[in-house]
Structure prediction request, 135 residues.
Amino acid sequence: MIYTRQIRVEFNHCDPAGIVFYPRYFEMTNSVAENFFRDVVQLPYEEMMARGGGVPTARLEVTFHAPSRLGDLLDWRMQVLRLGGSSLDLSIEAQGADRKRVSVALTLVNVNAKGRPQPWSDEVRQRITTFIEAE
Prediction:
């Protein structure tokens, strides 16, 4: 199953040349993952943080394919590649009107209040598994 989200390139995403400044892609990537947890997993980041936990990024690998410009509408597509004991491997891509702009492979780790990996709850694991298996 693929989780999708559209993000329009705004002024705050751009450098003086009017193209996305590369760290802003990381913010957009995080927005896709955060909204996946809100929409699909039904566990908003603010709930995780209120409990003292979270899902920080442990690994990030990026390929920049083409620049994105102010006003471009990017179609973000996220796929869960692997659900581990306390981790989640994701593939995220942004497509512009004409071509792929960026692709990202990342690993999120479920952590407790001390910042240590903790297993996914049965409820969260089931929701992610249901998403993975949906066609």
Remarks:
- The longest strand covers residues 73-83.
- The longest helix spans residues 22-39.
- The CA atoms of residues 66 and 101 lie 5 Å apart.
- The chain has a mean pLDDT of 96.
